[in-house]
Design a protein that fits this description.
The complex is a heterodimer of chains A (265) and B (321). Chain A is α/β, with parallel strands linked by helices. Chain A has eight helices and 13 strands. Chain B is an alpha/beta fold and 321 residues long. Classes of the chains: A alpha/beta (265), B alpha/beta (321).
Amino acid sequence: MRIIVCVKQVPDPEVVQYRVDSSSKRLVREGVEVVLDPGDGVALEAALQLAEAVGDSTLTVVSMGPERAAEAVRRALAMGVALGASAGVLITDPALAGSDARGTAKALAAAIRMREFDLVFCATESTDGYTGMTPGMLAEMLNIPHLSFVRTLECNGRSVTARRVTERGYQVLEADLPALVTIASGSFEPRYPPLRGLMAAKRMQLETLDVAALGLDPEDVGTAGARERVVELQSAEARAAGQVVPDDGEGAARIADLLARVGAL
Amino acid sequence: MAENAVWVYGESRDGEPTAVTLELVSKAAELGDATVVFLGAGAEAAAEIAGRYGAAHALVDPNPSYDEHLALGAVDALHALVTERAPSLLLFGATYDSRDVASRLAARLDCGVVCNCTDVQREGEGYKMLTPWGGDAVAVCELHCAGVKLVLARAKAFAARESGGECRIERFEAQLGASARAVRIVDAVEEAAQGPSLSDAAVVVAGGRGLGKPESFDKVEELAALLGGAVGATRAVVDAGWRPFGEQIGQTGVTVKPSVYIACGISGAVQHLSGMKGSRTIIAINRDPDAPIFRSADLGVVGDVNTVLADLLAEIRTRRG
């Protein structure tokens, strides 16, 4: 099975509070710790377990971002070296900065079209932008079906069967390959990359692609091509300032008082 | 372009529009001339109800194929409709199904989508969309593309208002190609949940990473049961496999607006805050005094969450005798 996994490097959700630059109105990504998006770790694990189940697979990791996003690609490769994760692609070009979901999907689609594949894996959404639009757009641009919010999947080489999370339970879906799946957060527990994998991934040559190599018009992607524009930032309607108190042993009583006052006891 | 024609992609179940669909229909009626599109079985019955909430016009295609396949049939139908009739705005609820449809439709139209939208305002010839941005800001967004503007709006952002009107129902038959049947829904399984549903509960007790370990959720569950509420979770603990996806509150997952929200060991990431900020009373327990959740809280207790929870359970039991 020829598997492609799309990953993204994001500000570490465990340590940073996301800040927005007031002039560019974009997320501040400089000077913050960055990691492989935890949601992508889950999608990657789903891909690796599928590769284990069907055997004889290749796995390509594709990412778009600044040059340092190579670390996220290597991290992903390190998880999967033993299972055929052998190629990493980094799409990087200053012209891509400021891309919205459409611009990102265009770049990913152009890179993925350059190779043969059976199944593309994505997280349902990124942990920084969390709009969840890129995977569906990517599938549409690749002209393949997409199965979203997947929590388990099986594949027989011709078609994929998946359980999709719904508001009330789950659906069982079937589609022929090639297809794209998005993996619901928490559905798989990402393995820790083995030391051998980390070493091997460090030495791997990544393929880097810029806008020209992808055959994209620089005016159609990045800030220039973005359809979604932030025209103004306003302060959120602040709630009336509450009371924050240290727990001096009376914390629980104060909470109970408030619950009683609002009629919840 | 149709002057101020505001469309809603309706979702329904057994001929009943979903709650978010009616919220959007009422909002659409406020913005302009409201049209709702329903696809699949029960489309016509759903349209009649939507008429009472402000839809002036409904487009229905009751082809059962929409219910048997995922997303792509709806994309074909909407693409044909908006290309032919040129509405100015198309609103979707931020549900799993609508996210799939909106993202593919946007790509097919080569336009963008404003996501997580909490308000839409008419401004001159266009629209401005508001969406939470960073911790304490709201972004005013525009879509720079010709034709229809696509917006995914959060549940409970708008009020559904029954105005008692009636809508003109127009049947149409979309041309669905083979690709519309590419993803087959072969089964649908409902999983029974205990207690009140998370999205409707009057009290929500939610837990995050700060609880330290999955077992600490026992106390969260106990407190929720004592208060007749539901249990919620952050994305971080869902990702860690501590809690099921169905409990996730935030950008993905459930939006809640309970009377009381108790955040246990939750730092208050943006993606979480936007799913619960509308709660009437917010109580937060966290070790870190700088945790952003405290800025949204009516009462914040800085301390060990497991200790405070244990004390609180004992306190409530004592007061109730």
